[in-house]
UniProtKB/TrEMBL annotation:
Active site: 84 (electrophile), 156 (proton acceptor)
Protein name: Triosephosphate isomerase
Source organism of this protein record: Marinobacter manganoxydans MnI7-9
PROSITE patterns according to UniProt: TIM_1 (PS00171), TIM_2 (PS51440)
Subcellular location: Cytoplasm
Listed Gene3D superfamilies: Aldolase class I (3.20.20.70)
Pathway stated in the Swiss-Prot or TrEMBL entry: Carbohydrate biosynthesis; gluconeogenesis; Carbohydrate metabolism; erythritol degradation; Carbohydrate degradation; glycolysis; D-glyceraldehyde 3-phosphate from glycerone phosphate: step 1/1
EC number: 5.3.1.1
Isomerase is among the record's keywords: yes
Listed GO MF terms: triose-phosphate isomerase activity
Gene expressing this chain: tpiA
């Protein structure tokens, strides 16, 4: 929940102008608060994709304050972020709710960027992979064989979000490999699904993270509020990833 109309216009314009020179084939997606989506779409041009940070698990109706996947599509979005750790922690969003939202997102024709991740307590208890696997299986339980190509999974260890702590590249890779194995067991084309890492990604650690074989990109938080820092991270993605 950051920004203003002026920031949305200037930041996206700056990112667009710098991202136009990227030669690694990376797709750059901007996901602002919903109220700024029209401004971001207007500034994105054909260089950037646009998403929204959340949608409801309902198609329409008496749900004041909510927005639907079809509304996001109507405003020009291509992606929806769902199941972010802050939604899970602060708004009691369950795996079942995530699954319902994923269903709505995919039915609308949008792409679902589904967040999973463990807390520090769960990691220290040796339950990290078990917890994340359960979130993947439950959150993506309704995805059909034709829909997997529109699913992205973002691993965001809760203990590394906004804390300055980052999983080592090796730890992140191990979890991404585990997620890809779970997807394979679910019948998904696991090697074709993009897996993103989110957790205090910065320009100075992005290259090491993205060099790992199962880390296809990043879900960037605070560092995305400065165009130069954000585009520097985008440049760190190896070509062909």
């Amino acid at each position: 929940m950051n920004g203003s109309k002026d920031l949305a216009q200037t930041l996206v314009s700056d990112v667009r102008s710098q991202a136009a020179s990227l030669d690694n084939g990376v797709e750059v997606v901007i996901i602002p608060p919903a109220i700024y989506v029209p401004d971001v779409v207007a500034s994105a041009g054909d260089v950037l994709s646009v998403g929204v940070q959340n949608v409801a698990q309902w198609a329409s109706g008496a749900y004041t304050g909510e927005i639907s996947a079809d509304m996001a599509l109507d405003q020009g979005c291509q992606y929806v972020l769902v199941g972010h750790s802050e939604r899970r922690q602060l708004f009691a969003e369950t795996d079942a709710a995530v699954a319902e939202k994923v269903g709505r997102i995919l039915a609308s024709g949008l792409q679902a960027m589904v967040c999973v991740g463990e807390t520090l307590e769960e990691r220290e208890a040796g339950k990290a992979e078990t917890v994340v696997a359960a979130q993947v299986k439950a959150g993506l339980a309704t995805v059909t064989s034709e829909q997997w190509q529109r699913v992205v999974v973002a691993y965001e260890p809760v203990w590394a979000i906004g804390t300055g702590k980052t999983a080592t590249a090796q730890d992140a890779q191990a979890m991404h490999a585990s997620i890809r194995q779970v997807l394979s067991e679910m019948g998904a084309p696991a090697n074709e699904i993009s897996l993103l890492y989110g957790g205090s990604v910065k320009a100075d650690n992005a290259a090491a993270l993205f060099a790992e074989p199962d880390i296809d990109g990043g879900l960037i938080g605070g560092a995305s509020l400065k165009a130069e820092d954000f585009v520097s991270i985008c440049r760190s993605v190896p070509a062909g990833t």
